[in-house]
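User: I'm writing a short methods note and want a consistent example. For Small ribosomal subunit biogenesis GTPase RsgA, I'll paste the sequence; you return only the structure tokens, no commentary, since I'll be parsing the reply automatically.
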Amino acid sequence: MVDYDLLVPYGWTEAVATEYLPLVDDLVPARIVRMDRSECDVVTPHGPARAACPRDITGLCTGDWVGLDAERTVRQLLPRRSAIMRSSVSGRSVAQVLATNVDTVLICSAADGDVDLGRIERMLALAWESNAQPVVVLTKADAAEYLPLDEVRAIAPGATVVAVSAAAAVGLDVLTAVLSGTVALIGPSGAGKSTLANALLGAEVFATNAVRAVDGKGRHTTVHRELRPLPGGGTLIDTPGLRGIGLYDAADGIGKTFSDIESLAADCRFTDCVHETEPGCAVQAGLADGTITERRLTSYRKLARENEWMASRTDKRLAAERERVWRDINKQQRKSYRERGRR
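Assistant:
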């Protein structure tokens, strides 16, 4: 009989067992804790192991639950409860998965410099779209001249906003209290993600570097996404710094991030209002009375346009792929007819 106790620190629960065990049949359930190109580190009911990743199972990511055969080869990717995705850095209309089966997303922004509200809104859209709960973390609070907590809370409806200092052990108890399940850290290089991860883990697990003094930018210290068990329960995934945060099919995430604007838009006189010069526009009225700011409305429009553009590119790519498949089918049919005629 398989003992699943070794999986519990890595997120195995009764709910996970109920969902996954009927799917794996004669395979062994395991969770990916780190991905390489053709292999991955996993944790199994028998302990940590190194597993092979065949080419026919693509897109595996840290946080995935999989089924392994007796040779420790991944044979099945189990359904994901959530996935943090951005558009590919290559510019192609495909998604890059950053982490999967995440329950809480920590959006990290360094408070000892200029806190970029637009970047936080972008990461909030990413987090909400993933089906996880976002928490905005202003790091390096001990070195900040001013903590813009009220400004950040105003742009993060539905999300908890906390200020912490991992180095000075300030605010970590408040942050720990709102963590649940698998926690993923996202943010730019230099935001203090690895330092915060080490503080939450209670050990120097991930390498850290100081930001460059000349421009205040960070250097990549985390190069792999890696999952570790948290001492108080749950798991943590540290991710490399994000330079570009392109949205991918994030309409719902944008809606939740800008729920204040979308709530106003529901009261516009015209259902196709674009919130510019139309009479009876509730969004423009909210702008006039200070309910929303021009910066926030501009950010909303920018992300919505970007998402629509990416969606149109995705639709064209899928249409092109379907056309290619049908061309191949027709080509094979014509070849078959010619060969039949010769016989």
